[in-house]
Amino acid sequence: MRLLIGTLFGLALAALIGLGLTYMSLTRGTAFGGLSIDSWTAWPKSGTTEADPYVRASIARSGRLPTAMGDGVSFTLQSDDEGKILDGRCDVVISGVTPVARFWTMTLYNPDGALVGNSTNRYGFTSQEIVRRSDGTFEIVVSPRASAGNWLPTGGVPRYELILRLYDTAVGVSTKAGREVPMPDVMTRSCP
Amino acid sequence: MIIRWLLLILGGVLLGGIVHLATVILLPRTATQDAYARLTPIAPVNTVVALPPPSPEKAIMPFMDPAFASAVCRYDLSQGPLKLSVPVSPAYTSVSFYTRNDVAYYAINDRAAGRRVIELDLMTTAQHDQVPEDEEITAADRLIVESPTPTGIIAIRAMAPQPPPRPRR
């Protein structure tokens, strides 16, 4: 009897730890193997056959098709440069330049990957339509309230993430953070 | 008594680690809502289908880029290799290849292809081995892509910038 209880205890513990770890690692994001530049993170290997089992499982679970190496690379932003989680009720300013790419897009998503509805049907900016300053830098205001210039509406959602996709770029698996890959600065300007 | 329980906990933790690794490795094979499964109802085999642009209410897959017009082809090479030719748009166009388990194994864009039409042959490794060598030489400009799995997804994407936002009143 004691043996049975002990075995059941051991098996229950194993199931709890095993499934718990799997769930956590797939929902909290795979932190390792990423390329982090400032607050932006990319997993260039997720677009290759060298993708590790965690990345593969996370892709299969979410239902997305990853950006393939040779097509481009995706950088995800979940918090500003001070580590504050992006809040759709605040004004967040994204400014600066991106690494060299033929074409880039920046898109705002819910944490589950859906676009966020808003009155102007704007879900992001592309390098072709963004308004730049005379020195080539740009500034995007991510805010629930209409704003002059490049305004990216949040719809007031409490949490969102931004994805910067660089297409036809040299940024890839062998890239290290540095001066060749300048990422835009992210600052929360005001919160109601 | 205490040692006995400590041993049980240790055994449970070790077994838990094995369960974790096994589930992570097996998950892609059992996922019922992965990209391939989501595309199955709308994409007949070996046919290119245009995907509706993602909207806040509805999107076939999460994290689709709204700046692109996309089309997919769910392929099955068991009946033979596929020929694919994609006309490129004046702006950016790319063709990405994914295995049955949504792993990207190859991608090419219009500039890398270097012409107005991206043309290639998709085949399995076994089918590639059967291509006569002299034929491969005469057709040196043919691009051959080897698929690691007999089935998979081809994603064709062309840049389609958003219309400028409506003027605000």
Structural features, described:
The complex is a heterodimer of chains A (about 190) and B (about 170). Chain A folds into two domains: about 1-30; about 35-190, Domain of unknown function DUF1214, C-terminal domain (Jelly Rolls, Sandwich), CATH 2.60.120. In chain A, the strands form two sheets. In chain A, strands 1-2-3-9-5-6 form a six-stranded antiparallel beta sheet, with no helix packed on it. In chain A, strands 8-7-4-10 form a four-stranded mixed beta sheet, with no helix packed on it. The longest helix of chain A is centred in the N-terminal third of the chain and has 26 residues, at about 1-25. The model of chain A has no long low-confidence stretch (mean pLDDT about 90). Chain A has helices at about 1-25, 55-60, and strands at about 35, 40, 70-75, 90-95, 100-110, 125, 140-145, 150-155, 160-170, 185-190. Helices cover about 20% and strands about 30% of the residues of chain A. In chain A, strand 1 and strand 2 (about 40) form a beta hairpin. Chain B starts with a helix and ends in a 10-residue tail after the last strand. Chain B has helices at about 1-30, 35-40, 110-115, 125-130, 135-140; strands spanning about 50, 70-75, 80-85, 95-100, 105-110, 115-125, 145, 150-160. In chain B, the strands form two sheets. In chain B, strands 1-2-8-4-5 form a five-stranded antiparallel beta sheet. A three-stranded mixed beta sheet of chain B has the order 3-6-7. With about 170 residues, chain B is α+β, with helices and mostly antiparallel strands. In chain B, strand 4 (about 95-100) and strand 5 (about 105-110) form a beta hairpin. The chains are: A alpha+beta (about 190), B alpha+beta (about 170).
